[in-house]
Here is the input.
Amino acid sequence: MPFRNTVSRAAFAAFLAFCERIHLSIIFFASCGFSSKKDEIVYAEKALVEQYRLAIKHTAESLLGAGKSLAQNDPMRQLRLGYSILTKKERVIRSIHDIAPGERFEARLADGTLVGEVIDKIVTNE
Here is the structure.
């Protein structure tokens, strides 16, 4: 089953874990030998409430982790750390080979944008 992102993969894993816990609860429930139907219902209700509580807790922890990951990878955070995003004609410049001397570019910073022109290129990693 293809997943588009890690959040849906984590949610699916949480769902499978929840199903496994429910399955184990049903097996335990069947082997208990309750004295009345009321006792069976009370136990089943408590077991289901606990399983849902654990599933919600696990899902909340997964969402919290995903939120932290999103915050760490926020482009504005990177700009506030002192990095910039260089673009030429609204396309990101990822390599020194994406732009030639004499071409204009924009450097997006945390508090604004600079416009510049390439004077020279110095290749360091080839």
Remarks:
- The chain has a mean pLDDT of 82.
- The first strand starts at residue 85 and ends at 88.
- The longest helix spans residues 37-72.
